[in-house]
Design brief:
255 residues; alpha/beta; 15% strand; 7 strands
Length: 255
């Protein structure tokens, strides 16, 4: 199997949650590969700052301010992309959130926020991207950044509804794959499920309790670049090859 990113050169990729963590690393990696990348995030100033540092790369990074919990902002962002840049060929859903709390003591608003970001926002962005691809006869690629917690429940304390939101992503990936097959579409769909990644949601989160921090520090970790490399890998596969699920674990991961 020959791996190549050549067919994506100068094409448009949308990356949600692109202001930090995995989303930022994915956006930067795709710019390095020569794509025009549109990063969606609330902290759009961070994206614009990085675009300056990436100005000498093969691709280009644009930032659009979007709260992934708000459908109208996602829809407007895709409309802006179509009107100003062109058709979307790739969508990488990286936006995600979690909260530290027991399931039996959690806050309902926190639960809603997790599902709004991790599930509904992902669905809206995917719908908009797929409709653009279908309308313009583009054999594009949708990538969901999932989690190993989206496949098995592990003994990790105070994750409450986060695994449930990621199990939903696993189901949505397969649902979309079957739907696209039924439609005879050549659009690809991939779930990438990493283990514990060092981000602002985990080891870099300054709001976690000491108990939570020690729990994370006791586990092997991945870097955001490891996940970005996984994104580039699945995009590099030939058009007839679909990597439906890519699980990335650090050496020593017990589960």
């Amino acid at each position: 199997m020959v791996l190549s990113m050549e067919r994506w050169k100068d094409k448009i990729a949308v990356v949600t949650g692109a202001s930090s963590g995995i989303g930022a690393s994915v956006a930067d990696a795709l710019v390095e590969q020569g794509l025009t990348v549109v990063g969606l995030a609330r902290r759009v100033d961070r994206i614009k700052e990085r675009s300056t540092h990436l100005s000498n790369k093969k691709g280009k990074l644009h930032g659009v301010k979007v709260d992934i919990r708000k459908e109208n902002e996602i829809v407007d962002a895709f409309k802006w992309i179509m009107e100003n840049l062109g058709s979307v060929h790739i969508l990488v859903n990286c936006a995600g959130c979690s909260t530290e709390a027991l399931l039996t003591e959690g806050n309902t608003e926190d639960w809603k926020r997790i599902f709004d970001v991790n599930v509904l926002g992902l669905c809206v962005a995917t719908r908009q991207a797929v409709n653009i691809m279908k309308s313009n006869y583009i054999n594009g690629h949708i990538i969901h950044i999932n989690s190993i917690l989206g496949h098995s429940i592990q003994n990790v304390s105070k994750v409450n509804v986060y695994p449930a939101s990621k199990f939903a992503v696993t189901a949505l990936t397969e649902t979309l794959r079957q739907e696209l097959n039924t439609l005879g579409s050549k659009i690809k769909i991939t779930s990438i499920s990493p283990g514990l990644v060092v981000t602002e949601m985990t080891l870099l989160n300054k709001n976690f309790t000491e108990e939570r921090r020690k729990a994370f520090e006791s586990r092997p970790t991945l870097n955001v670049e490891d996940v970005a490399d996984g994104v580039v890998y699945v995009l590099s596969t030939p058009e007839h090859v679909q990597v439906h699920e890519l699980t990335i674990k650090p050496i020593g991961e017990p589960c």
